[in-house]
Design goal:
Elements lengths: L1 H9 L14 H12 L10 E6 L2 H9 L6 H4 L2 E7 L5 H15 L7 H11 L4 H25 L3 E5 L4 H8 L7 E9 L17 H4 L4
Antiparallel strand pairs: 1-2, 2-4, 3-4
Helix pairs in contact: 2-7
Length: about 210
């Protein structure tokens, strides 16, 4: 357990990546599998993950990210996109997946299906968007933790123009919207922020036992 905490203390939001040191495809696939295995509310996974490798696309995204160098200098740029709205098919597709994966009947899942639909489908669009966006942050946390375990650097980023990202990546036509971005790579030796003491509230300030 101490090793896990050591890795979490080692990680930081990398500000300068080494563009000449690349994360291997094998390690990338481990990170993506960690994202795929992440928990989500009801298990619905109302999102999609984009791995941006194309240099031209990343240059455009950098301009839509206030010219932050992480966008182009990291080995990979992951865009976690949520479904801003949804209908019955979100639940129906999940139910079909359960049936195929677990070999149960549709009748066995009718109650669960109706419960999810009655809870979710009546939400206003703004609340649907907020809820599905929240789910991407669970996957984001998993990605960052597993990356730290592998001593791969990351930088979570919210500083970007979502409308421009959606246009550049063609997300609107897919009923998706960029929620949060994660740059993945290796820190540059001259990134001074890696030496900054980690600033967190004490356990006494942030944790209450009841």
């Amino acid at each position: 357990m101490k090793k896990v905490l050591d890795k979490l203390n080692w990680r930081y939001a990398t500000k300068v990546f080494n563009p000449s040191k690349n994360v291997s495809k094998e390690d990338l696939n481990i990170l993506l599998e960690a994202a795929r295995l992440s928990a989500s509310s009801y298990g619905l996974q109302p999102y999609h993950f984009f791995v941006i490798e194309d240099n031209e696309v990343r240059s455009k995204l950098r301009k839509a990210s206030w010219n932050q160098s992480q966008i182009t200098d990291a080995s990979y740029l992951l865009v976690l996109a949520n479904k801003p709205t949804f209908d019955d098919s979100l639940v129906d597709n999940y139910i079909d997946n359960i049936i195929e994966t677990r070999g149960v009947s549709k009748k066995d899942l009718e109650g669960y299906s109706q419960m999810m639909k009655s809870t979710l489908l009546g939400l206003p669009d703004a609340q649907k968007n907020s809820w599905t966006s929240d789910q991407t942050y669970i996957a984001l946390g998993n990605l960052m933790t597993i990356a730290a375990e592998m001593e791969i650097d990351t930088c979570p980023m919210e500083g970007f123009d979502k409308a421009q990202y959606n246009e550049i990546l063609g997300l609107n036509d897919k009923n998706l919207s960029a929620s949060v971005v994660l740059a993945v790579g290796y820190r540059a030796d001259d990134d001074e922020t890696q030496n900054y003491p980690k600033v967190r509230y004490s356990k006494e300030q942030i944790i209450t036992h009841i």
